[in-house]
Design a protein that fits this description.
Order of helices and strands: HHHHH
Largest sheet: none
Length: 123
């Protein structure tokens, strides 16, 4: 059990640091009211978890330890659903209802599509 916790923690730390760096970079090149960094990170994270999920189903060498490290840890630390919900509430508080609806709808729809594409890519 300790090994599993450490694998998830290692992957989660790497994912969180990667998310932080990506968000900072995206913020430096974008000047939008739309939370583009979190949006793009969530879509990429959905794509990655779809690829990992499909690969794990087909390859015995993608064992449970690797799944914990990459899927639970890395993708869990990289994707930002909690930040997504907080930023969504921020758009509501700023009376940006149109952006709120666009952000929620596009994140969910494109996240599902990206996960499906990830699964298809890895087949």
């Amino acid at each position: 059990m300790i090994k599993n916790i450490l694998l998830v923690g290692l992957g989660g730390a790497a994912g969180s640091m990667l998310r932080f760096l990506c968000q900072k970079w995206i913020a430096s090149v974008s000047n939008l009211s739309f939370p583009l960094g979190t949006f793009l990170i969530n879509i990429v994270g959905c794509l990655l978890i779809g690829v990992f999920f499909s690969y794990a189903a087909k390859h015995a060498n993608f064992n449970y330890n690797i799944q914990l490290l990459l899927m639970t840890g890395l993708c869990g630390g990289f994707t930002t659903f909690s930040a997504f919900t907080l930023e969504s509430m921020g758009l509501i508080r700023q009376d940006k209802t149109g952006l709120f609806v666009l952000y929620i709808g596009a994140s969910v729809l494109l996240g599902l599509i990206a996960t499906w594409i990830g699964i298809r890519i890895a087949k």
